[in-house]
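Run folding on both entries below.
>entry_1
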Amino acid sequence: MAIGLMARGCVVFSARTKGRALTGCAAGALACALVAAVPAAAQSNVAEAAPPSDKVGDIVVTAQFREQNLQDTPIAITAVNAAMLAARSQTTIADLANQAPNVTLRAAGANNGPSIFASIRGVGQSDFNPALEPGVGMYVDDVYYPTLTGSLFDLLDLDRVEILRGPQGTLAGKNSIGGAIKLYSRKPDGDGGGYVQATYGSRDRLDFRGSADFTIAPNLFGRISGVYKGQRGYVSRYDYGCLFPASGVPATQPSGSCKVDTQGDVGYAALRGVLRYAPHGGLDIIIAADYTNEDHQVPGVVLLNADNHNPNVAVNGVPYDNRFLCGRYCNYTDFANPAAIWLGPVAPGFPLVAMRAADRTTYEGWGVSAKVKADLADHLSLDSITAYRGYNSHWANDDSAAPTSVAYSENRLKHWFVSQELRLNGKIGDTINFTVGGFYSDQRTTYYTLQDIRYAPIPLQFVGNDPVNASTKAAFANIGWQATDALSFDGGVRYSKDSKDYTFVRLDPATGLPNVFLGALNGLTGKYSGNRLDYRVAVDYRLSPVLLAYASIATGFKGGGIGPRPFLPQQVQSFGPEKLVAYEIGLKSDLFDRKLRLNLSAFSNQYKDIQLTFLSCPQFGGPGPCSLPQNAGDADVKGIELEAAIRPMEGLMIDATVSYLDFKYKCVNPAVIALAPGSCSSDPSLLAQLNPRSPYTPKRKWSAGVQYLIPLGRAGTLTPRFDASYQSAMFTAALPSPTAIQPLAIIDGYTVANARLSWNNADKDLEIALEVTNLFDRYYFLTKFDSSGPSGAGFTSGYPARPREWAFSVKKNF
């Protein structure tokens, strides 16, 4: 045996045989193993309070419902521990994607509220609407988060993050067709430890973080943690009429004070409390509660193109065009539409009411969970995970980023979700591990919206207050067989049954009566139900003590539902689930006496019945826009991922990732844009005409990071770190119509770099750090919203990433 790493008084042993990580770490010392662990799949390791090492360490993961060394797990996993999150200046879940191959995580733009865009290997979701399912499963301490809203997590008091790539239909389960992202919090253990941290930075950034671990009574422990973040915005909002008094656009600000405010600011606070009762090794009960509050300006937007000559969107006769382009980091957003008389062509003279809202985003979320692990007998245990979550959220959006009256919306979500999962884990002899279990969830979201869509050919102003109900029942079983010392098999099945209904409310904002143009939808309910059986089979073989090869076949699905934005009754249609079959091979290696870790995975996915949302639906006829999810076609997705960690000498750590993804549609259903009825067509001319794409899927990504721990003797240590990451161009729109290629719905490729310099005292209980993010001040976009095509809005807006920022922090451990 070889000693891998020492941390907090426990030793993690590493035998060069199957299952090596667990034979040397006692059950009660699992937390020690995680603290000492490296980020999985060749991410670099920084263990808190651990001495420098010239070897890549081990990490224990639970992706297959049992504790395994990462290098023995036949799944492509990237895991990052808390120390590495800090070293990379990562504070939100969106920051993780830079170093995760074939993973895209983006904070949403203003039209999607406080939500996240998530995609793994070309599979995901970018629409917040509760009628739609995420394609990447999001979990905190094994509790599933069912909506994109509220999933932009702060990385508060975490032990580690695991990103599982590829379908996890039998493991993580619900809507994990692309993969799963799992956050694991630090468990209270009564050691009396904790920390406080304060940060000050660019534009009056002020962050406070802290946690405390304590003993309440024998075998009863508690932990409390909290975070506050505040910062001024970086996109300036100006009053166009004030800046250009001769333009004909009325001013709302006094002359000489034309700046209204800044967008993209930060206002975030969260608190989490955990109780743990562990009377003996066979029982562990953890009860956790959390509260999150966000209150800030909407995300900063810039207008990239404007061309709409509909007289109903003009302001005082001033048309909507590129005169309203402000440039980098600024806009002329108004958040108001005046009262007016509709000019036509349909219903001329129809009165339009004035609309105005504060340009703020708010989110208040809370939850409680109970996680119980009980040993029923030798080699037999039961896990129960019970959770309740809820949130209220509000945001307004002026899509046009101009003082004209193109489009305006105000949105409120009220949501609750309950879930229960049971797992029976057992072992038969020394070679077989199994898990059987069940999952149940129920949720309700009420989506209130006030919409003013003046670019439409009819006057569309309405109030919606739509209840959306969804429930899931599932049963699953997984088994692992250690056939020989070198050969293992893993397999599983999962049966899921989903049901969902969506009831439409379409009222007039002035009278409260059914809307005169959309009244046929008022009170109409769409329903969906479906079931699915997923499976997974994996085999791995240890070619040598330092090299593991594996292969797997796995399936997954993303639930179907009801199109949430119809304008005609015939648009109230259900769409079916997405389905995926993934074939994957991989190699995991620790070479040169554990100085080099190379992990390689290659995959080929058959992706069927892809759900895409279209902004033009001519097959339904009638005036008005359209935003209709449909099963649009099938694709072949192939890719390769390489992750490396290098420890050439003590104190020097280098990590790198490279990924490539080829996403090609092999057929498209022509009926989705009314070209012809029929099934999925592979006609090359049709594919060329439609030019289908996968949103938020860059073809190439790479990242590299290096840090060096410099001993200063009794003065402590100094650690400089540099990170850089690149992603190639990616589209933000799914499928254009035959009449518009939407060239603006693309984010160009870019490279972004961060740097950090940290000093730790000799006792390792005090850290002072200086960090710079976006070191070279690269101007690039997080997302774009392109409505320049047949929907009729005639604009493209973009949400720029934060410019270069610096921050100074002090952290005290106790």
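>entry_2
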Amino acid sequence: MEPRDHLAAVLRRWQWVAAAGLAGAVIAVALAMTASPRFESTTVLFVGVTHAVDPGDLATGSLVRQEVLPSLVELVRSSAVLTPVVDDLALPMTAGELAREVDVAVPEDGSSLMVTVSAEEPQTARLIAAAVGESVRAAVGELTGVAGADAALALTTVAPASEPRYRSAPNPKFVAVLGLLGGSTAATLVIGLLFLARRPVRGPGDLGSAPLLGQLVRPRRRRSAGARRRSQQVQRLGWLLSAPLAPDARLLVVGTARLGSGRSGAGLLADELVVAGLQAVAADEPSDLGNATPGDRAVVLVDVRRTGRDRLAAALDRVAASPAPLLGVVLDGLPAPSPGRAGRLWDLVRPGPVWRSGGSSPPTPSVPPSTRLTAAMALALLGLDPALPTGVTISFLVTLVLLPVWLPALPRFRGATGLALLTLAAVLCGGVLALRSSLDHAFDGREALISSTMVLGAAGTVGLVAWARTVLPLAWLGAAFGAGMLVPGLVRAAGSPNAWKFEVALPLTILVLSLALTSRRRHSLGLVGLLVLGAADITHDSRSAFGFCMAAAVLAFWQIRTGRPGGPGTAGRPVLTAVVLAVLAVGGYQAATHLLTSGALGAEVQARSVTQVEDSGSLLIGGRPEWTATWALMHQDPFGFGLGVVPTGGDVQTAKDGFAIAHIPTADNYIENYLLAGRFELHSIVADLWTNLGVAGLALGIGMAAAVVIGFTVALSRRRAPALVCFLALISLWDLAFGPLPSNIPEVALTVGLLLLPAPDRSSRFPRAWTTGSAASQPALAREHR
């Protein structure tokens, strides 16, 4: 199904979309009016240096915005600040529940904290906001050890909390817009799925063994270029059909759909053929075919706007059971070219023939420009993935709207359907676990929505990338995704403590390695790109990214040295390649540890690495100690916790006990203010899937890792893994084990979609990934690895 088919189906039923959007807006507003009102009160605290006694105090003043304010943002929502507020005001909630009602913001180019508190009563909101401000000031004094006038760092209330006059939520206008968008999106999805379920006939590839006799356009007006073109096509069809007909024989036109108001498409074509000089009659009823004579011949007329493959098969069966032999099939209802520039733009989105044929050669697949544009824009949005106010991820919305487009591609790739079904089962399991955990844990509906749509969006990204492989080259597929990721990174770079490491390095690497594939010297350029980017990584204290670039460079160089990548005669041994990679991974880790602790990469990198090894006994545990807390939580509750479940004090203590073996001095603060600060975020995609979705989520994470490993080892063993694929495979395996779910799931889903292996029954419309062959017969990704 092409994107323009989906769009045209929606446009033809715009009344459905409008009605569903209106109904969604009405329902949303009705629900909002019955909900409890919320009021917000805000207090502003200025953070600054009151006086400087020594150079250390001056340094503190210069680092207020870069380092002090981010720490204070986490402190405001911590139990150390909120527990005294709950006790002093006797609030009927815990500190964790209050944290969900407190929002902290830092204005641009300022050194202040804006603390906003939401409550059901205006006076309660004011009291809590004022109490939180005082508690923050007291906590800062306790943490620094100096309070009052002697403190170098002071928090001053510049805007005290006031009682709000108007409620902040629910906002009827905002809710109405959400309902309108939700209803319209649901109607769009239903229309697309119904169109897909009908399995429309789109070209010769859908006709089976029946020959194609001709294609007829659908004119909008009688006296138009489309009408003249149809007349020419009918004349040509009449000349073609006159040869096999005896002088007194009839041509039976069997229709598959009515045009509306009882009109018969077969009758209209029969009248046109009569004008062309043939003895043609419409055979709309089974009795018409039963009265055929042995000299008669039959033609099946297929209206591509209304006919599905099942109805076509029924019509062909009727002809096969009649005395009249079948001459072939005529496709009717194809759109005629529109005049003018606006018409040519409309031709890009409306449905048209999917197949082109030339001469006597068999039809070859043709990808419309609108399909390529849709794929590129969708991938850019998936990489961009901006935060939405409702908590629903943009990847979920994009993949949901395009579900009818990419869903048919899943059976063409091994494991794709299984991953999709496992994702649905895991989300359902997460909901069941949330009900189970509600007996002794608090529940956050917003976090549940964010986590569930994030996982579903990742599964949709896998399917959309798999479909995009059939319409875009690998170079432009990766470039679109990398460019989308780079935009928010550049926006956040000004406020990041290390813009290269946290914002720019990953998207820029994807973009550079993708663009390298557009050159004839793609493998050499990819290798050079990895070396240059790796050097930039290590100079910006990005040790893990440096390791991935160097490891990917080694694999790319090995493919170049052992044979032309993608060349003939490289059948490959995936199992042996996997074993060799495992051995190299262990050896590479030992070599990297020695390199980092020896000082060869700089004194600062050496100091950090030596400290981590001394504290935890291992560079891996010292750098990523979160798994010690994860193991402890798994021993406490092996089944997981569920979507939106808030950690309790017991969970926090269990994580601290597990963290103790890593000997991290700041472990308690890290656990309370990041790992278990109102939600489970264990700095590992697999671990986060387990906490949110239970055992099914753990299986989903392992399944994604298996798809990456299998696809990568097959490509690598056949010398058909370019530098981009090597880098993405390595970093995705790392992210699955040690990367946060919210920030790293997009590139992991991209990698899984790229490395899915084609199924044995793949058709010519889908790529033979990582294989060679004629450039004319290989679409998209296959041509990138010749």
